[in-house]
Every structure is written in structure tokens, then in C-alpha cells.
Design a protein that fits this description.
Elements: E1 6-11, E2 14-19, H1 30-45, E3 51-56, E4 60-62, H2 67-70, H3 75-94, E5 99-103, E6 106-108, H4 110-116, E7 120-124, E8 128-130, H5 144-152, H6 154-163, E9 166-168, H7 169-174, E10 180-182, H8 187-199, H9 203-217, H10 221-235, H11 239-249
Parallel strand pairs: 2-3, 3-5, 4-6, 5-7, 6-8, 7-10
Antiparallel strand pairs: 1-2, 8-9
The structure holds hexanoyl-coenzyme A.
């Protein structure tokens, strides 16, 4: 599919999805969300893509939902917009492959929410994170009130959301929002390197690990351990498990087929 606001490329088994609307700091309007939805389907169905990297073109990752588009929305239109974005973000979060966000600059409002829906966040030193929505007279609307407290705890989430303040990449890493900080303009390269490391492992195992973590964290420890037990056992249906263990015994590198 041809996109106006996205570019989709591949590096080996890594799919690279770039939001490309730099003139508006990659702000998410209805069209960008619609394209993201379609691009995620394309990436989900592409058997050669094992890991996805999501980034933004230019000086921002994403500076939020499009304020100009939201300004005159009716409550009904606002609800529909929030629901559409939330559905697309949930699709991103539950896609059956790891997703790494490479955050080069601003990740504000819907941009911070988009990064949080990814599995891992790599940030450039100059990146900035925040949920500034209350300054516009709205709450976060693409899952910020739900994902941020799950990631950093309610106290820090409430401070960030109530004050609308922006935090540095260093602070974001300190509170557990960011995995890794890298020199300016190297977040994409680092994310691709990490994605290639993940892509070199057994993909049934990687996918089952993602499912076990995400399903388990939403339940109690006994249920979570049961989910893990089932997914662990399922790995033994895969050729990768035989190959991974045989390679270890034979003191050679595994040749995963997936
Ligand atoms: C629409 C945006 C935008 C946004 C930036 N732009 N952010 N347009 N929606 N969220 C546009 C500007 O209007 C400007 O267009 C161009 O991008 C460059 O931005 P500048 O402001 O000139 O850049 P700079 O001075 O470097 O400031 C960067 C910034 C600032 C600090 C990130 O742009 C900013 O505060 N943006 C808004 C951040 C925000 O409040 N995000 C939350 C949105 S609400 P022109 O045409 O003038 O060049 C949200 C809700 C999600 O995300 C849930 C919805 C359901």
C-alpha cells in the first residue's frame, strides 16, 4: 500500500516504520492513524519481518495528536478519535512480534502514548517525554492514563499527567519509561541493532515470551505462571527448540528456521 504519512522499509528481518510528517512534528491526525492501522496489518502479515522498529522523521518522534484537527471536535467526534487511536495502539501493543520505539526527539501526548505501546524504547539524549494534555484542557486520550501508571507507578504518572511537565530522556530512563539512552541521532541505528539481535533468536520463543509477559502482567502470579508454563511447553512443538538445544550440545551456532 502507498502511504502519504508513513514510510515502510526493511533491513534483513527488521521492518522499519517511520512516521513522516515532519512539518507538523509527526502529529497524529486521522489519516496518520488510518495509515498506521494499515501498516501494522502489513507488518503483521509479513512472514519475513520478525521485529519492528517504529520511529519519527526529523526532530520529533511524535509531538502528539493533531491539535488543529482536534480543536473543533464535538464530544462525539472526540470519542471516536480517541477510540480509533486506542484501537490502533492496542493493535501495535499486541502485535505478535517485538516492537522497538526509536525516539529521536519529542514524544509528547499521543507521541508518548505511542512509544509506551511499544515493547522497548530507545531514546536519543535529546529526547523529551511528557503528557502535556491538561495544558490543552483535555486528559490523555490514547491510553496515557492507563499505560503510564502501569510502567512508572501511579505517583509519578499522576505528577507527570497533572503538571503536564516534560521530562528529559535521562529522567525517563530513571523512572523506567526508557530502556536505553544513546547519543543524539543514533536511536534508530541502535534500535535496528537491537532488533537484529532479537531477530537472530528463535522467533517462536521470542513471540511466546512477549505473550507470557503481556498476558501474565494483567493477571495474578498463579495465573501468570500457568500462562508461562503453557507457552514454554508450546516451544517444544517448534523446530527451533530442537535446533537451539542440539546446537548447544554440538557446540555450534543454531540455525533457526522459525
Ligand atoms: C498539530 C503540531 C503539534 C501537534 C507541533 N505542531 N505539535 N501541530 N498538533 N500536536 C506543529 C506546529 O503547530 C508547527 O506548525 C510545527 O508543528 C512545528 O512546531 P513548533 O511548535 O513551531 O516547534 P517548536 O517551537 O520546536 O516546539 C516543539 C514543541 C511544540 C514543544 C513540541 O510544537 C508543542 O508544544 N507541540 C504540542 C505538544 C502537545 O501539546 N502535545 C499533546 C497534544 S494532545 P507551523 O505550521 O506553525 O509550522 C494529545 C492528545 C492525545 O496528544 C489523545 C487524543 C485522543
Amino acid at each position: 500500500m502507498e502511504f502519504k504519512y508513513l514510510t515502510l522499509s526493511k533491513d534483513g528481518n527488521v521492518g522499519i516504520l517511520t512516521i513522516n510528517r515532519p512539518e507538523a512534528l509527526n502529529a497524529l491526525n486521522r489519516s496518520v492513524l488510518q495509515e498506521l492501522d494499515a501498516a501494522l496489518d502489513e507488518l503483521a502479515n509479513d512472514k519475513d519481518v520478525y521485529v519492528i522498529v517504529l520511529t519519527g522523521e526529523g526532530k520529533a518522534f511524535v509531538a502528539g495528536a493533531d491539535i488543529a484537527e482536534m480543536k473543533d471536535m464535538t464530544p462525539e467526534e472526540a470519542k471516536e478519535f480517541a477510540e480509533t487511536g486506542s484501537r490502533v495502539f492496542r493493535k501495535l501493543e499486541t502485535i505478535d512480534k517485538p516492537v522497538i520505539a526509536a525516539v529521536n526527539g519529542y514524544a509528547l501526548g499521543g507521541g508518548c502514548e505511542l512509544a509506551m505501546a511499544c515493547d522497548i524504547i530507545i531514546a536519543g539524549e535529546q529526547a523529551k517525554f511528557g503528557q502535556p494534555e491538561v495544558g490543552l484542557g483535555i486528559t490523555p486520550g490514547f491510553g496515557g492514563t492507563q499505560r503510564l501508571p502501569r510502567i512508572v507507578g501511579t505517583k509519578i504518572a499522576k505528577e507527570m499527567i497533572f503538571t503536564g511537565g516534560t521530562i528529559t530522556a535521562q529522567e525517563a530512563q530513571r523512572i523506567g519509561l526508557v530502556n536505553k539512552i544513546v547519543p543524539p541521532n543514533t536511536s534508530l541505528q541502535t534500535a535496528i541493532e537491537m532488533a537484529k539481535t532479537i531477530a537472530s533468536k528463535g522467533q517462536v520463543a521470542v513471540r511466546n515470551s512477549k505473550r507470557a509477559i503481556d498476558q501474565g502482567i494483567e493477571t495474578d502470579i498463579d495465573e501468570g505462571v500457568k500462562v508461562e508454563n503453557q507457552l514454554f511447553a508450546k516451544c517444544f512443538e517448534s523446530v527451533d527448540q530442537k535446533e537451539g538445544m542440539t546446537a548447544f550440545i554440538e557446540k555450534r551456532k543454531p540455525n533457526f528456521k522459525n
